[in-house]
Amino acid sequence: MGRKPKKNDSLPGSLDMLILRTLSLRDLHGYGIVQFIQQSSGNELLIEEGSLYPALQRLELNGWIDGDWGVTSNNRRARIYKITAAGRKQLALETRQYAKLTLAIAQVMGME
Amino acid sequence: MTHVFRRLLYWKESARREALLREEMELHLAERAADLQADGMTAERARHEARRRFGNVTLIHEESREIWMTRFLSELGQDIRYGWRTMTASKTFSFLAILSLALGIGANTAIYSLMESILMRSLPVTDPESLVLLNWTSQPPQNASKQWVHVVHGIQGMFWPGDRGALVSGIFPYRGFETLSDNNPVFSTVFGYFDGHKHNLAIRGQATTAGTEYVTGGYFRGLGVAPAAGRLIEAEDDRPDASPVAVISFAASQNRFGGPPNAVGQSILVDNVAFTVIGVTPPEFFGVDPASAPDLYLPVRTSLLVEGPRAAQLFNDENFYWLEMMGRLRPGVSMAQAQSVLAPRFRQWVATTAKSEGELAKLPALILNPGAGGLGKLRREYSKPLFVLLAMVGLILAITCVNIANLLLARAAARRREMAVRLSLGAGRFRIVRQLLTECVMLASFGGALGILFAIWGVRWLTFLFSKGQENFTLHAELNWQVLGVTAALSVICGVIFGLVPALQSTRPDVIPALKDGRGGGSRHRMQHVLVVAQIAMSFLILVAAGLFVQTLNKLHSVQLGYSRENILLFSLNARQAGHRDPEIATFYQDLRQRFESIPGVSSASLSQSSIVTAGYAGKTYRGAMKIGSVPIEGASVMVVGPRYLTTMRIPSLAGREIDERDRQGSTPVAVISERLARTYFENDNPVGRRITLVDDKRDVEIVGVSGNLRHGGLKSGESSSMTVFIAASQYSPDGMTFALRTSGDPLSYVKSVHEIVRQADSSIPVTNVVTQAAEIDRTISREVMFARLCAGFAILALLTACVGLYGTMSYNVARQFSELGIRMALGAQRGAMVWMVLRRVLVLAAIGLAISLPVTLAATRFVKSLLFGTQPNDPSTMAIAGVVLFGAAMLAGYAPARRASRIDPLVALRHD
């Protein structure tokens, strides 16, 4: 499926973390999450939009996020996701691991 | 676990969720397209670009579906596949586990189902709980000098022993029935009945025998039975002047009339007395005795017509006991209340029937028993054997469970390293436990499924065993699904517990020790030994029980009968029931005997009032007092026999001659006496030519010969050499007769000729009770045969299971000590020493098991004392043999692993981590 040149595949599993992070700031529907990640990364991170949905399912299944039907800003019915307490814990864990990893990579690269 | 729940919920709502997911994605695409359009794209291009950026919608659908639904299923599938692989990888383990589970479940369910149907099932009538059986109890009828002193002067029915030598019975005189049934304040109905045994039932000229029950007018109303057709017997049918009517069973209506409606209004002949069928009982109804199912129900009063003038005494004699009774409690009345009301009433009446002070001193006292299950004959006879069997199968199930536990423990230990590896590779603990659980449940399910088959088959087989030798035995046993459920659940739970505990242990987060030595686990090792010891202890108990019952059977088979067992065909005819009368009946039988004797292959034929086995209580014979001069003969029984009886039965003739064709009506009445009688009353004198007085018949018979002693009443109960007086049938006025044919070859191959001859002589006489002498004798010990077979089977099963447990444990031990054994070998240990090292442990385990079991066995076997014959419950030789067998089996089970231990290559063992 390597059709997308800018697809974020450098850090597998990081999509979950990005979603959790996004939802820890505000409750959003699927499209909103994609938009937020793209905008807040200065359009550096372009995720394959479709892959968001399986990820959302997985996160919900693990009990980290909760989806509820609500209405978007332009008045369309949409599933609005919010992070759960377990999700916040998971986010904290993943953030720590991510920090460790990037630090390690930085050290290897002689940037530290 | 909420995890699993959540997943299941997702799975359940999969269709709805999929639609919602589609909606979510549509929204996403629409919003993206709208944004792109706002950036200046055409609508067409924006939609296209949105799709491009989104990716493959179908694939994403698939992916998300997989996440919440398929993953669960696929993991389950994986578990099952993996479980199947493990099962097939260790075929022996799986086979043994499944087989022992199946046998345990099957045997338990079958025995319990049978027990339930015999001991606990209620009669298929309205509100069986309010039915009450009327019995009475009194002190033993014999006084100190063994004379019968009791208000019961005569009986037609049964006594059975109560507590402390008391006499218990359910039969009453007709006056007693009237006393209790008239104006009864506690019973809404009281009804009586008695077993009329077999009668000749002729329908449109075709005769067969039919089991008959005489019932009083309140019988069907009291039981609350509704007819399948017509109406049932009522009070007005049971009056002296009523026209004779009959009710037939559903089965009889189908066999003989082609259905209940056709039977109503038909006329039938019962022993040549005309009756009109007025109704048919419902299909499930079998009377009040679960052990029999009468074909014919007649009003009690009609016994005067059918049973002949003898029956008159039934209704008039206050000291003749024959009618059985049941009552139905009025609403709100308890059995205790009813007893307190009726007991004084009965006592008052029965006191008036006492003929002497001695009789007055031990009057029968009325007692009430629950009647929901019907008569207790079957229960009294079989409850103890069934409890013993149930205890045994319970033990088998315990051994089975222990075995499963042991096998699973050993396997869990063996797989500890595998678990540790899987854990360290990142498998979830829950995932692994679930895997192990799936395996246990799979084993248990296979075992359970096979167990159901065994149970179905077992119930049939047991019913066959129990009914063997009893004509018209109707045991309504069927598989009890509740019991099956409980036993199956028990073994599954056992499997799961013993599968799960080690599974949880071996998936402890701390995997390092397991990875390091892989074959540790001291506590489990001890646990296994405890389980093996328990198995051995239980097996010993079962082995001893089996030994005792086999011993009992052997003793019974070696009993001296005094007459021939093989090559004799027995069958019964009743010419009187077909209308033959004195004096013609004697010549009729005589003539038949000669015709039977002329069948090619029949060397001799004779007849008697019953077979020797049933001689004590069946057939019309002389039962009154006998005297030689003025000396009364005590304890002798009379057998009414035809010519050449001793020859046919191969009873030795010791002096004089046997009864032959010279002894006819009108010639000198003769008798042949047995050796013991001769020795007792004539000592060394020659009894031939002396006379015996039959006091009640007011006549003398001349002794013409002396026969060898023979054993009456079968193998178990009969006296070893009872005193017998044979008198000539032709000189006695016989009823039904049992013919005996000495044949060459299989006796049953002559049955056809017999039927042919009887049909020619009188086609209205049915031939009944066709059986070989050997089978007739074996009937008396059918319970012992069944017991010996079942117990031997159980013992083999228990022993096998225990050996499997032992083998598993020892193999595991050897595998665990692989390196240690290797070092020993390297250091020069002898092979024999290695074998001994392992076997010694086996012996120690067996010895501990035996030591624990011995006192338990000694205590437990006392409970089966009444089921044994010629053997003591603590029979030392049986115990010794059981012990030897157990040790032998244990050694065999331990030898394979021991041999393996002695074949270890030190180099391989030392290299092994």
Rg of chain A is: 15 Å
Count of individual beta strands of chain B: 27
CATH topology of chain A: Arc Repressor Mutant, subunit A
Unreliable runs of chain A, pLDDT <50, ≥5 residues?
A: 1-10
Number of H- or I-type helical stretches of chain A: 4
Mean pLDDT of chain A: 80
Helix content estimate of chain B: 40-55%
What is the CATH homology-level superfamily of chain A?
Winged helix-like DNA-binding domain superfamily/Winged helix DNA-binding domain
Distance between the termini of chain B: 38 Å
Helical segment count of chain B: 29
Overall mean confidence score, pLDDT of chain B: 82
Could you walk me through the main structural features you see in this protein, from its secondary elements to its overall organization?
The complex is a heterodimer of chains A (112) and B (913). Chain A has one domain (14-108): Winged helix-like DNA-binding domain superfamily/Winged helix DNA-binding domain (Arc Repressor Mutant, subunit A, Orthogonal Bundle), CATH 1.10.10.10. Chain A has a 3-stranded antiparallel β-sheet with strand order 1-3-2. In chain A, a hairpin with a 5-residue loop joins strand 2 (65-71) and strand 3 (77-83). Chain A contains 4 helices and 3 strands, in the order H-E-H-H-E-E-H. Chain A has helices at 14-25, 30-40, 52-61, 85-108; strands at residues 28-29, 65-71, 77-83. By secondary structure, chain A is an alpha+beta fold. The longest helix of chain A has 24 residues, at 85-108. Chain B is an alpha+beta fold and 913 residues long. Chain B folds into 5 domains: 2-87, no CATH class; 90-121 and 380-520, no CATH class; 130-372, no CATH class; 534-557 and 779-913, no CATH class; 568-744, no CATH class. In chain B, 52% of the residues lie in helices and 16% in strands. Chain B has 29 helices and 27 strands. In chain B, strands 18, 19, 20, 21, 22, 23, 24 and 25 form an 8-stranded mixed β-sheet that branches. The longest helix of chain B has 39 residues, at 429-467. Chain B is globular and about 130 Å long. The two termini of chain B are 38 Å apart. The chains are: A alpha+beta (112), B alpha+beta (913). Chain A binds chain B through residues 1, 29-31, 34, 48-51, 53-54, 57-58, 61, 63, 72, 76-79, and chain B through 2-3, 6-7, 10, 20-21, 23-25, 27-28, 30-32, 53-57, 59-60, 63-64, 67-68.
